[in-house]
Amino acid sequence: MGKLRLIIMATFQSVFRALYKVSFLTSLIHNITCFLAGLSRLFCGTKPLSIYAKGNNIPKKILILYEYEGCPFCRIVRETLSLLSIEVLIYPCPRETFKKYGHLQDSRFRGEVKKLGNKVMFPYLVDENTGKSFYESKYIATYLWENYSGGQKKPLLYRLSMMGPFLILGFFIHALMRPLPSMGILRTPSKRPEKLLELWGREHHVGTKRIREALCTLEIPYILHHSEVESKGTLKDPNTQKSFSSAKEACSYLFASYQDGSTTEESLLDYGKDDQRGKRASKK
Ligand SMILES: N[C@@H](CCC(=O)N[C@@H](CS)C(=O)NCC(=O)O)C(=O)O
User: Which helix (H) or strand (E) holds 177?
Assistant: First the structure.
């Protein structure tokens, strides 16, 4: 990552860290930053394609996605799933550190991806319906359209959002707007719930996004429903029979019930530090 870009991002990170401590501003800042992050991706996937009426090919067995919220490539896949209204089982794999790409030590699910595909890289999709599993966001998105869109055309905004300049702009603005480690970027040690939690919503819906971020940093696996059966941003926990429709309450509940240690707090200035050291060391 360019040094200037890192400095800008780390500055935003420090400013937001300070601002979120002002409690009466918290909800407002969450709303504004989630909105701007969504806008930078043209709200792709927020409005579903009306495919069910035309009998699209709904996967019989639920698709499985290893991903994390702070990863821009994973977002492309979630946007596509949301657009196609496909439910998915999410195994959140937040980073353990900014310092090293593909680092794996204490992570709950990163090791599974390494075993399945031989690399610690995200997103990683497993489709038990076809026996296929693979990396590479664009390849996964194409696969989803080919197999589960019922032959519908890709909407204009979706096609635009997948073009180079929009991808770069979206990646950067999103990273500026949601820069804190607990926003689904770095892991927070947690107790693993016995049963899968369930979340209803769409990509770029503010409440859904905030809950996804909390589930991600806590490495809590869940079923993500892209459907209107429950209102957007509804979280259900079958372990305690609790249900929430407010993001603030859902996030407080998740941290109070499952957090089991402190979030890895690092500055974005640490990004890639150990990778570079590694490279320098190997050059000697
Ligand atoms: N070309 C790949 C790039 C995937 C990628 O680089 N993912 C990053 C996250 S954004 C990753 O897995 N980093 C390793 C890590 O998080 O430790 C794609 O489009 O899926």
Answer: helix 164-177
User: Domain for residue 283, yes or no?
Assistant: no
Examine residue 164 and state whether it is found in any structural domain, yes or no.
yes
pLDDT at position 36 is 95
Element (H, E) at 198: strand 197-200
Write down the pLDDT at residue 280.
53
> Encoding tokens for residue 139?
């390849």
Atom number, ligand 1, closest to the C-alpha of residue 123: 20
User: Ligand 1 centroid to 186 CA: how many Å?
Assistant: 14
The token duo for 58 is 């709904």
Is 43 inside a domain boundary? yes
Query: 72-83 vs 164-177: helix axis angle to the nearest 10?
Result: 110
Tell me which residue has its CA closest to atom 10 in ligand 1. Answer: 71
Tallying the residues shown for the chain, one arrives at 284
Cα–Cα distance, 99 to 270 (Å, whole number): 5
At 54 the pLDDT is 52
Distance 92 CA to ligand 1 centre (A): 14
Please write the tens of the pLDDT for every residue from 1-15.
Answer: 678 888 998 898 899
**What is the pLDDT at residue 284?**
45
Q: Whose CA is nearest to atom 14 of ligand 1?
A: 102
Domain containing 37: what range? 3-274
Residues of the chain with pLDDT under 50: 53, 281-282, 284
The residue whose C-alpha atom lies closest to atom 11 belonging to ligand 1 is: 121
User: Cα–Cα distance between 91 and 173 in angstroms, integer?
Assistant: 25
Using a cut of 0.90, tell me whether the model's pTM lies above it.
Answer: yes
Q: What pLDDT was estimated at residue 275?
A: 82
| Ligand 1 shell residues, CB under 6 Å | 71-73, 95, 101-103, 120-123, 135-138
Is the residue at 284 inside a domain? no
Number of domains making up the chain: 1
